[in-house]
Amino acid sequence: MSSIIDNLFSNQMEDLVKQFVQENLETIMKEEMKNFFEVEHPELKNSKNGYYSRILDTRYGRIEDLAVPRDREGHFRTQLFDPYQRRERWLGETIITMYQNGFSTREVGQFIERILGDSYSAATISNITDVVMEDIREWQQRPLHNRYSVLYLDGTYLKLRRHDVASEVVYVIVGVKDNGYREIVDFFVGGNESAVGWKNILTSLKNRGLEEVLLGVFDGLAGLEQAFKEVYPLADVQRCVVHKVRNVISSVRKKDKEPIITDLKKVYRALTKEDALAAFEEFKRTWTKAYPKVVNSWEEDLDVLLTFMSYPKVIQSHIYTTNIIERTMKEIKKRTKTMNSLPSEKAVEKIVYLVAQDYNEKWGNRLSNEFVSAQSVLMEMFDKRYRNN
Question: InterPro entries given for it (predicted)?
């Protein structure tokens, strides 16, 4: 009996709330129409033509008979909702937010059915999230800041369905501007990661205004260093030390991993480049006999592995690795982990874009203190390289 009374009370409260919302919406529309004719367009004749009734789904429930005012000539349109919109904008925003957070289109559809009683197909949900595509195209064509102290380049693979399912790369570029702000500069989807793909992407960035770069940080993808230098010949290159160390771990016996990593830390954590070179010579003497290929690989790349030591000490720990971009990649993977594969290239772009906007909103309100501290030295480096060439 108690539960029946509780339900009746709950239903009565729901009805009262919906009535209150309906009355306020109708009052607002009346005032809108009055303002439209008396203030905004006094030259038009306000020939009232009563009201028409429509359904509107709100977060408070469905209003079955919302009275919308109209004039005889059809000049007035309420700004509360689009002419053919049956739901408040909150629904579209909710769908996009759920999609952004890794819910599949099927799961979003089930959620909408539970709260509104309407069945939404995966295709319909996908169409609703397509509004993001316009934002993506505009964002990917925006003019770019002309100076970046650092560009971090990395790629990750997601399963994408075209004719069949295969892993395809998502190229991501994170930058630190000369003023100390970080941002995801852009991303591109498709195919296998390649130096040619990166060169095309970097050329596009340069054409959009990103003209001056001090340092590019990336892994050892074949040909990437050359491609980067072809687009930004005056920039330095930093090979990601963390990637290089991981390659060592996969190439040595288990018992030797810890001592080798300890000896390598003495190289890339040295206080000066001279100390780093001395530490590498010690590493070389210790491990050449057991692992000649590992030592040779490090020796061949040593210059680009230690580039960061020519930069201000305060930012060195931020520029010898692509860790900053790898955190972004992990977030993208997190958003897609519930999906066995993504149904289209557009679906991948939507998720990556929404992740990028989250990061850029967060980073846009926070300077990197380390880069701000190094700003005067970095500006001198910019001027020395680009003003005399």
Answer: Transposase_mutator
3-state secondary structure of 133: helix
Helix axes 105-116, 89-100, angle to 10 degrees: 140
d(CA 74, CA 46) in angstroms, rounded, equals 10
Angle ∠(181,182,188) on CA atoms, nearest 5: 145
Amino acid 84: pLDDT: 46
Could you tell me if 111 and 103 are in contact, meaning their C-beta atoms sit under 8 angstroms apart?
yes
Q: What does the alpha-carbon distance between residue 88 and residue 122 come to, in Å, rounded to a whole number?
A: 20
3-class secondary-structure state, position 383: helix
Vertex 76, ends 73 and 80: CA angle to 5°?
Answer: 150
- 232 close to 201: Cβ distance less than 8 angstroms: no
Sheet holding 182-189, edge to edge: 182-189, 165-177, 147-161, 212-218, 236-239
C-alpha distance from residue 115 to each of 14, 59, 111, 118, 274 (Å): 14, 9, 6, 8, 66
How far apart (Å, rounded) are the C-alpha atoms in residues 226 and 24?
Answer: 64
CA distance 354 to 212: 27
Q: What are phi and psi of 221, to 5 degrees?
A: -55, 130
What is the rounded average pLDDT of the residues 6-17? 55
CA–CA dist 297, 285 (Å, integer):
15
Q: Which DSSP string do the residues of 261-304 spell out, in sequence order?
A: HHHHHHHHT-SSHHHHHHHHHHHHHHHTTT-HHHHHHHHHHHHH
CB 353 within 8 A of CB 187: yes
* SS3 label, residue 328: helix
Q: Where are the domains of the chain?
A: 1-87, 89-129, 145-386
Query: What is the per-residue pLDDT across 297-334, written as a single tens digit (0 to 9) for each?
Result: 999 999 999 999 999 999 999 999 998 888 888 888 88
Residue 186: closest CA among 358, 353, 354: 353
